[in-house]
Amino acid sequence: MGPHAHKLSAYASQRLVSLFDMLSRKYAKLAELKNDKALKVTPDQMEADIISDDTSTELHIYTDFLRIVLEIINAILTYALPRNPEVVYAVLHRQEVFQPFKNHPRFNELLENIYTVLDFFNSRMDMQQLDGEWSVDKVLELINKNCRSWRGEGMKMFTQLRFTYEQESHPEEFFIPYAWRLILSRGFSFNPGAINLFPVEIHVDDSPSSEQKV
């Protein structure tokens, strides 16, 4: 989807970078925990090995998560930068979150393009003779102006991410009862005793029956 993103909103762009920041914090904690476990000597070595294996597995998962987010950002900046000034702004605004991973062997290749973009726009900002501080509007104005002259020089092309939707073997087992639950909840009149797809609460009228006339 990254190469085809068009005019991503400010909120979506900021959330994308914030997602990377959140995942990176979790990754850093897991990496620190793994190092502490490796240095710590414990009488129960088997238990320590199990904990270490769990931490390593979780760390590997977060590594993959971080790579996916970086690949999405990288794809947007590589193939669709002129159409997404808000993404450029979000990356510029939070550029410090990428610094710890700049030389990381699992992430550095994906960050090369991001830093190529950062260097380009940071240099354009440094060349501006500006009185006072940079406002959001002024930064976006500069980004939009320089997006027109962006040629993507020095950007590396990576294989685009492709995701496929995998459907469950029998999706109707979930969706048919779910759809009928929605229909019943909207007040459509059905005989509850005749419903077999899912359990239905049948309300019993506890009011005293009227006396029979003689």
Q: Could you walk me through the main structural features you see in this protein, from its secondary elements to its overall organization?
A:
The protein has helices spanning 10-39, 45-79, 85-93, 108-127, 136-147, 172-185. With 214 residues, the protein is mostly helical. The longest helix has 35 residues, at 45-79. The termini are far apart.
Element order, helices and strands? Answer: HHHHHH
Mean pLDDT: 82
Quaternary organization: single chain
Q: What gap, in angstroms, lies between the N and C termini?
A: 78 Å
Q: What is the fold's blueprint, element by element?
A:
Elements: H1 10-39, H2 45-79, H3 85-93, H4 108-127, H5 136-147, H6 172-185
Keywords for this entry:
214 residues, mainly alpha, 56% helix
Task: Give a short synopsis of this structure.
The chain folds into two domains: 2-147, no CATH class; 164-201, no CATH class. Helices cover 56% and strands 0% of the residues. It contains six helices and no strands.
